[in-house]
Amino acid sequence: MAIQTKTGKAFEYALLKEFYQRLKNPNNNVIIIDSEPYHTAKSCFEGFSEDEQGLYSLVSSAAINFLVDIEPRLSNSLSPEDTLQLEIVSDSEGQSGDVRDVLAIRLLQKWEIGISAKNNHRAVKHSRLSQNIDFGEKWIGIPCSRNYFEEIKPIFDFLTNLKVKDKNTKWTSIPAMHDKIYVPLLDAFRKELLRLDKENPSQIPQKLVEYLIGNKDFYKVIKGNNAIEIQAYNLHETLNQPFEKINPKAKIQKLKLPTRLIEVVYEEDSKTTLIVSLNEGWQISFRIHNASSRVEPSLKFDINLISAPHTLFNNHIFIGEK
Q1: Sign (positive or negative) of CA dihedral 54, 99, 133, 307
Q2: Quick one: which of 64, 71, 137, 138 has the fewest CB in 10 Å?
Q3: Nearest alpha carbon to residue 48 among 17, 6, 76, 103
Q4: CB atoms closer than 10 angstroms to residue 204
Q5: Rounded Cα–Cα distance for residues 313 and 322 (Å)
Q6: Tell me: the pLDDT tens digits for 113-149?
Q7: pTM of this prediction?
């Protein structure tokens, strides 16, 4: 397992553990759902030294204290039967547009909130491009054109042939790789995204953001070295709900989804990154890269949110060193 995956899963476990310790009391019945993702995350957490575990716990505790203030349903139940279930979500959920890693659920209240846990990175998605991937269908439910697949075919045929000849061929051995591979692929992707938008007026911007950001509301908790950042993606107004007469201690506004694609351009002096600008303040970067050192007939996008609407709730908590 890659170190970034291990640290991410350890952080998920630390958040779940701090939720449990902070919220469990005689008046609040809290249980942890026993599952394979839970045991995997626990094992990753326990693989770190005691000092590192302590830092994960300290940062998670600060995040949980803040979330309890803005989500009163976490600590308030209707009755002893109103159990709060804590769960670590399977990675496969992310493929279907649900980016949440940790869930807190009250079945009796028909309520849940989710957390996307990020350890020192901010990428919103890692999506692939290949000859067989219809990004239009997969991302927004509208298939790509035949022209798009015909345009990218020579690029992926070239890569397939290189791999067939020698499976150890390195990307660095391809002369002018950026001009030969990255730029034509990004050009085809850009052209197809603009075509999809033109033929499906006002549909693409919203669907693209929902695919990239997540189709369910969530809190993104980003762990730094001595700080934590909490963002609230309240697209459908399911976050920040009161419990009976108990109101949250801070107000989270609804995030406006975009309705218009403004432009798709290359980042200045770049042959690897496209910038997609949408209305309502959304701007997203798509950086293409090879996922491994050896040539393979697929490439990966590292997708990042450059800017979001000013209504995006964002809170920084700074933590002194231990």
Answers
A1: negative
A2: 137
A3: 6
A4: 25
A5: 28
A6: 999 998 766 667 778 999 999 999 999 999 999 999 9
A7: 0.84
User: Residue 5 is encoded by which pair of tokens?
Assistant: 């995956």
Average pLDDT of the residues in 225-245: 92
The per-residue pLDDT for 125 is 77
Name the token pair of 233: 């993606």
Phi, psi of 184 (to 5 degrees): -60, -35
Report yes or no: 147 and 118 within 8 Å, Cβ to Cβ. no
pLDDT of residue 93: 55
Tell me which amino acid residue 115 is. I
CA–CA dist 307, 304 (Å, integer): 9
- Number of neighbours of residue 282 by Cβ within 10 angstroms: 27
Cα distances (Å, whole numbers) of residue 300 to 9, 125, 252, 311, 322: 22, 10, 34, 30, 38
Query: pLDDT category, 99, cuts 50, 70, 90?
Result: confident
C-alpha triplet 20, 120, 241: angle, nearest 5°: 45
Contact 204, 193 (CB under 8 A): yes
Sequence-distant (6+) residues with CB within 8 A of 28 are 75, 76, 77, 84
Q: Checking DSSP bridges between strand 30-32 and strand 261-266, what pairing results, if any? A: unpaired
Beta pairing class for 111-119 and 273-278? unpaired
Mean residue pLDDT across the chain: 93
Residue range 11-22, pLDDT digits in tens: 999 999 999 999
Domain borders along the chain are 3-122+215-256+311-318, 125-208+257-307
Euclidean distance between CA atoms 55 and 208, whole angstroms: 36
Q: Distance between the two ends of the chain, CA-based, in angstroms?
A: 28
Q: Identify which of 89, 60, 72 has the alpha carbon closest to the alpha carbon of residue 28.
A: 72
Q: In the chain, count of helices (H) and strands (E)?
A: 8, 12
The DSSP H or E segment spanning 195 is: helix 183-199
| DSSP β-ladder status, 273-278 and 313-318 | unpaired
When pLDDT is averaged across residues 205-213 and rounded to a whole number, the result is 91
